[in-house]
Amino acid sequence: MSESTRYLLNESDLPRYWYNVLADSPVSLPPVLHPVTKEPVTPDFLSALFPMDLILQEVSTERYIEIPEEVREAYKLYRPTPLIRARRLEKALGTPAHIYYKYEGASPSGSHKSNTALAQAFYNKAAGTKALTTETGAGQWGSALSMACAFFDMELEVYMVKVSYNQKPYRRFLMETFGAKVFASPTNLTQAGRAILAQDPDSPGSLGIAISEAVEVAATSNGTKKYSLGSVLNHVLLHQTVIGEEALKQMDMAGEYPDVVIGCVGGGSNFGGIAYPFLRENLRNGQRTRLLAVEPTAAPSLTRGIYAFDFGDTAQMAPIVKMYTLGHSFIPPSIHAGGLRYHGMAPSICALYDAGLIEAVAVPQRATFEAAVLFARHEGIVPAPESAHAIRAAIDEALLARQQGEKRVILFNLSGHGNFDLTAYDAFNHGRLEDYQLPEEAIQSIRERLPQVPEQIGA
Q1: What number of CA atoms fall less than 13 Å from residue 22's CA on the CB side?
Q2: For 339-388, what is each residue's pLDDT tens digit?
Q3: Residues of the domain holding 309
Q4: Distance (Å, whole) CA 391 – CA 186
Q5: pTM
Q6: What are the beta bridge partners of residue 99?
Q7: How many domains does the chain have?
């Protein structure tokens, strides 16, 4: 076992391949359905939104997909990212556990989102795309794609969830500095946005609504714009596996192997990114690492949602997928972890969770910020509110190890820094942060809002 604190790979160690979990998953994914016909989607339908290379990645079952050299060169601005042993936190907790974290906040945009933003921008540019549309919650995805579009000389429109647009103005400033146009969603610019505002002029917005607006703009652009999504889809999680591939090498440098790998989940991309390579080792090489997804109690898709076919967006324009869902019309409370305010979850994560191959837990907002502040005061990094959910679970695992008097190796993904989220910390520091527990009646009404799919597909 190494006595180091930081484990740094060389540039030459940067992964050359993304890992596709669908090659090894013992469960097959149900088909993706057309939002109108409810039949399996065709490449022609998807091509209105995505370039063909990404569509092929979405349906691929190849185990490894080569990373284009242009993307690897862009990755070298910040990858490989460090693996850090949280020794000071361990000491503060008095735990025999060893806590490691993969720090994705080292990227120029401040989070793991650049891993897929650069890839999606590259493939769109190669296909001749001139402009992209997207949604963003807290702004990490919008910031990453803004940077990527600047690198590959494309225009970008970002529909930012209104509550985060107001809570986190500095992320908007960052996106605009990279050249993006940013709108507070719901807007009056789209039919989807106008419909929501007609129902609720003070709507705080949601990721589902912002997705609807971005999809509508791309789908009605006569091919001049494509849509880019920052989570949920297979190709997005595929691109994020550089995180876990690097972490495997770095844990080997540390002379340890994790008993548990932890990541926060909203749509699932950073969790899939760190967890899927370790799942491969479980499935193919006999490892027994627990994989723990952490979500907020305000939007508990995995822990309290229903596993069913549902729309990926509020206005029912995006494809229908089978996932753990709170219902596509669900408007989550205005928590500060804006990137986790989504009604559903990545279909691959949902299928694996349903099969018992991964675990999930929901944590409340105030306990999450307590963990974030404790981490910041001992490790020196103020984490993004989303990432703080993983920290909460990691600390809970470490405290359990102390209680049980056993060593435990814990690895979590610190998916981004919180330097643009300080208004959330101000609210916590001054006692203005509230916990939200989704009421049971909201759960019971989910089925009423689900689309009806053909019986042979829904079975």
Answers
A1: 20
A2: 677 889 999 999 999 999 999 999 999 999 999 999 999 999 999 999 99
A3: 6-14+80-110+241-458
A4: 31
A5: 0.95
A6: 410
A7: 2
